[in-house]
Amino acid sequence: MLRRWVVSFINPSHTNRTFHTSKLLRTAQIIDGKKIAGDILNEVKQSVESWVQAGNRRPKLVAILVGHNPASKTYVSNKVKAAKSVGIDSETILCSTDITQVSLVERIQSYNTDPSIDGILVQLPLPKGLDEKKICHSISPSKDVDGFHSENIGNLSSDKSGIIPATALGVRELIVRTKIDTFGKNAVVIGRSKHVGLPIALLLHADGNGETGALDMTTTICHRHTSHMDLQKFTLLADVLVAAAGVPGLITKEMVKPGACVIDVGITRVKDAQGKFKLTGDVDFNGVKEIAGFITPVPGGVGPMTVAILMKNTLFAAQHNPKRT
Ligand code: ADP
Questions:
Q1: Ligand 1 atom closest to Cα of 247?
Q2: pLDDT number for residue 26
Q3: Does 123 qualify as catalytic in the annotation?
Q4: Whole-structure pTM over 0.85, yes or no?
């Protein structure tokens, strides 16, 4: 494992120049999610080109955006840009906020049966009145590139190959490509959401001999009902700590085992002193980087990975779409 050591010479008394104390400070290696996501996008681009050269149609992704949430618009536009960069065709479907559940599901069903479409995603969150669970479940599992359908979660739970939720697979790729030692080690995931925390925990704990590339870690899931004292007891045991709570600054350095790999999935828009919005993670980056061995920044850590893996999933869906034309 590569570690960066920073030697800093601290002079406790500026008046006595002969009395120098040297102190060894270790800072964490920053895991560059942008760079790793770029590597994955290059790999996907090459695979897409080979797939097309073998006589197949380009993969096609349909992104459904309901309403005018500015963050959702940005996410969808990033996904469309990424698709273009790897040679995947895409189409954005804009729906007004007052679309009914029935007509949204009907539209999704028409894309399910359209043989020229390989992947479908609905950008979350949806406006009030639309049932996210039902809508996500109306996407055909073979085109569900977000991997939220219970058939895909079921495959992941049973160590079977399938579409894995993009953020979870992104977290796995960050860990594996940084060559973190995971076999038999302890992992703690903070957050139990069905789209993020749970699939991450599934990938961390399961048998590496299965079809999902799981990491054989002893895995604990903490959530909003874990008392803060208990939370610290668990996090201090974690060789890999994944924070996916959406609570800015939840993880401080006292909660981190020295040398641990800390993956920050939280992305919250917080107003700074100047009234400007900035993206903030769940981890107190500056404090924790003094203790951890490895750490992801926000932004530039997990975020770009989710988009890159979505492209990987779209190619996977195209290659496993039985009715494509
Ligand atoms: P996401 O889908 O991004 O994971 P959610 O809001 O659906 O976001 O889920 C947040 C998760 O974080 C929940 O499982 C919740 O229990 C957990 N959580 C929220 N606050 C805390 C906290 N203070 N300590 C531990 N877990 C928390």
A1: 20
A2: 77
A3: yes
A4: yes
